[in-house]
Input
Amino acid sequence: MSNYATDSDVLEYEPRIKDYGVIDFTADHTKSTEDIQRLLRVEWWPRVSRNYGVSKYFTNAGLEMNTTKLVAAQFKRAAVYHVLAYYILPRLTQHQGEDDRFFQMISFYKNKFREEFDLVLADGVEYDFDGDGTVEETEKQTAHYNRLIR
Output
């Protein structure tokens, strides 16, 4: 499994993050990727797979999401925000009564992650349903496929 973001991606958003003593975030990127995939299983996949009878890509109701069919590039920004908010910055904050700089950054990046993740869901998750190695426009499914949202 490849991670959705790397240390160099994080450095684009927070260039001085490694100045605080933590040099490698590889394990954090793996956890962040797994968390995003879990969120997709909860928030996107049930709605898309429910339409298996409508879509030519679903042949049975018990279909499980295959994470290798996701297009990782569309989750890169969300993964950067997620790894900062949930794994990197919590190691740097003092976790005391007062909100320090890192605690404020955690709150900021949590909000940015949710905003970016929701945008990906609204724009349509790119998923190679037929497994041919390319994602056509018909394979890009929003979280609210064939559903009226008020």
